[in-house]
Specification:
Layout: H1 19-58
């Protein structure tokens, strides 16, 4: 059926067998990524404002 010599072994933890749990895990991952992203954004925003202040002081 397939020409590929690859064998994919997927080890799923017991709790992940339920679709609800998988959905929950993905949602948590997305939440973590989103919060990390917002922290990065805040950091860059502060950095940008700080740079602007320096420029206005020099001018």
């Amino acid at each position: 059926m397939f020409d590929t010599p690859f064998v994919f072994v997927v080890e799923a933890p017991e709790h992940a067998c339920s679709k609800k749990q998988i959905k929950k895990d993905t949602t948590n991952l997305v939440r973590i990524q989103t919060s990390l992203f917002s922290i990065k954004l805040q950091f860059f925003e502060k950095f940008r404002i700080h740079k602007q202040k320096n420029y206005t002081e020099k001018a």
